[in-house]
Specification:
The protein is mainly alpha-helical. It is globular, with a radius of gyration of 13 Å.
């Protein structure tokens, strides 16, 4: 039986690479949760707009996520 690797979410990856902290992720998730269901922004966009991460951090995290 093949064991399935854990797929990390974008926020977890950003924390692991030191680009984000838990409080910032929680704040971004609160913002996302308060958005209308048909108007929810991706978490990466919220993190960028809030100034919590830089574009290069997002690019790096997406690269890591895509190799999982």
């Amino acid at each position: 039986m093949v064991e399935e690797k854990k797929k990390y979410r974008l926020g977890e990856i950003l924390i692991n690479i030191g680009a984000l902290d838990e409080a910032q992720l929680e704040k971004a998730l609160e913002i996302q949760g308060s958005q209308a269901p048909d108007e929810k922004f991706p978490i990466g966009r919220i993190l960028l707009e809030e100034g919590f991460i830089e574009p290069n951090d997002l690019i790096e995290a997406i690269k890591i996520q895509s190799t999982q």
